[in-house]
Design brief:
Helix content is 57%, strand content 3%. The chain has 376 residues and is mainly alpha-helical. A three-stranded antiparallel sheet has the order 1-2-3. Helix 1 (37-43) runs antiparallel to helix 8 and helix 12 (239-251) runs parallel beside helix 14. The protein starts with 20 loop residues before the first strand and ends in a 26-residue tail after the last helix. 44% of the residues are buried.
Length: 376
Amino acid sequence: MSEKGYSPGLEGVIAGESAISRIDVEINRLILRGYDLVELTEQACYEEVAYLLLYGALPTSVELTAFNGELRAQRELPGPVVDLLRSAPADAHPMDLLRTAVSALSFFDPEVRDNSHQANVRKTVRLMARIPTAIATGYRFSQGLEAVAPSADLDHSANLLYMLRGEAPPAYEVEAINVSLILYAEHGYNASAFTGRVVASTLSDIYAAVTAAIGELAGPLHGGANEAAMEMLLEVGDRATAEQWVLDALAQKKKIMGFGHREYKNGDSRVPAMKKVGRQIAEAVGEAQWPDLADVVEETMLREKGIFPNVDFPCAYTYYMMGIPIPLYTPIFVASRVVGWASHVIEQHDGNRLIRPNHIYTGPEHRAFLGLDERG
């Protein structure tokens, strides 16, 4: 932090209070509403974690059944939103489609301008239900295929894969998606969540806040890192050449995607859980090329730079082994993180104060005005 109190990137600056999550630096774990995130990946489904974020407590079996029923009942998109996705250029990035679809969904929500707590919770459920449908519908249209209607018989993770492919996924893929959704669901005052809170602090609605957060997440230094990490691994290509590739990249001062995290100094606590399911996928499909290659990259980065991978790194190759197209990695991140964003928006609306920081001016002072004919 500078002598003037300025910290580039707001690093280390406290920008608010939240009861949603925190990183426990002593044990290097992310805590959601008091629960260890890693334990949640081992014992809960994504819907339970989403309920926890929204309501502040894990659901009872009755509450979970009702919550699942609400999600499954809200999955279909309004016809005009389907038409919008159908009319988009085939080469439009799925994140651009999703950002536009979420904004358009606000037209069809009768509670869009109601920022009360309960209305925001209901709108969050609708967004959670419809975002996977928008992802799958937009993608299939871009491939010249018809949309697959959501299945009321499948849970959140399985339904997402089903709508992408038109067939029920195997259990090991559902488990991998479930773990990744839990790991991505919430992460404190990250850039996209903070963006959503800034928008919400003006008393704009939850759709506006989530649309803005999607735009922020698309950047390769945030959610887009998983796509960039897989593109990098494809460039590396082979385990035998991976170490030298990393050494050459470091010598050229290239950024190694999927590594480093501002909040974790001793390694992203989410990585082991994602690597575990990545290995399970590799075993199921009989192909360990990508996790083996990734291990070499990881070992080289730790030895040479002391930098650990973040969760985007194992998530990238896990999705790739499942046959998920790379441009869909960040949209799937959105399908998970929307409940985290919404929890922040709700918290912001419930105790709002406009977020309006100061800045240090670095421009010129006291310039004399010259008339147009005096400027040469």
